[in-house]
Amino acid sequence: MHKPEKKVQFEEEVAKLLPSSISEIKVQKKNSTRFSLFVDNQFLVGVSDSTLSKLNLRIGSTITSDLLKDILQKENYWAIKEYCIRLLGRRDHARNELKVKARKKGFSLAEIENVLDELSQKNYINNASFAKKFARDKFKFNKWGANKIRIELIKKSIPEKDIQTALSEIPISDQIESIKKLVIKNKRNFLRAEPFKRKKKIFDFLLRKGYDSNTILKEMTTLLELIPE
């Protein structure tokens, strides 16, 4: 992905001021964790407190073109990291979800992967934990069956071993109980169907919810008894 045009223009304009020494460092009014750097009393670039500290930037430090590139690279990394952590603060995300969203923001794939590696190492991202919580919530609150949960986790690029582990924590007895509750909850809809079509309507409904076809068929007699005329 190419750099956005505005970013390229910004880097070209800033480079014209270099090399030069930092003449002033100001805390930004809207964000106390960011600072504005000035050279010869002209605004150069805004940086995070992390970049300021890592590069030991202070009044009198000489900013060269190479150092500017390093600053911008670290700022880009910081921006990706801050964006991903903000998303994780709203809800859990699988690694691939964050990658897709960051790509849509225009960040480079290599930089995104580096940030995601760091977040994974620090356990901000954990596909195994995400899969377990996703499976548990979708089964409990949405009444999804294992097949539908599996498909959605595959879409999120969750590894198969993590999907298997997550689904193994939903006992078959709980799935059967969920099937029964779904049929009872929707019995009016099933009763509208002709008796000879009722079995297929129940089967198709539960299949769409993601339940195993063999389990549905095995429980069909019991399910039909739950919705007597």
Question: What brief labels describe this structure?
Answer:
four-stranded antiparallel β-sheet; Arc Repressor Mutant, subunit A; 12 helices; alpha+beta; 229 residues; 64% helix; rod-shaped; 10% strand
Explain how this protein is built.
This protein is α+β, with helices and mostly antiparallel strands and 229 residues long. The protein folds into 3 domains: 117 residues, Winged helix-like DNA-binding domain superfamily/Winged helix DNA-binding domain (Arc Repressor Mutant, subunit A, Orthogonal Bundle), CATH 1.10.10; 42 residues; 54 residues, Arc Repressor Mutant, subunit A. The protein contains 12 helices and 4 strands. The chain has a 4-stranded antiparallel sheet with strand order 3-2-1-4. Helix 6 packs across helix 7, helix 6 packs across helix 8 and helix 11 crosses helix 12. The longest helix is centred in the middle third of the chain and has 26 residues.
Condensed summary:
The protein has helices at 5-15, 49-54, 65-90, 95-104, 109-121, 127-141, 146-155, 160-168, 172-185, 187-191, 195-208, 213-225; strands at residues 20-27, 34-39, 42-48, 62-63.
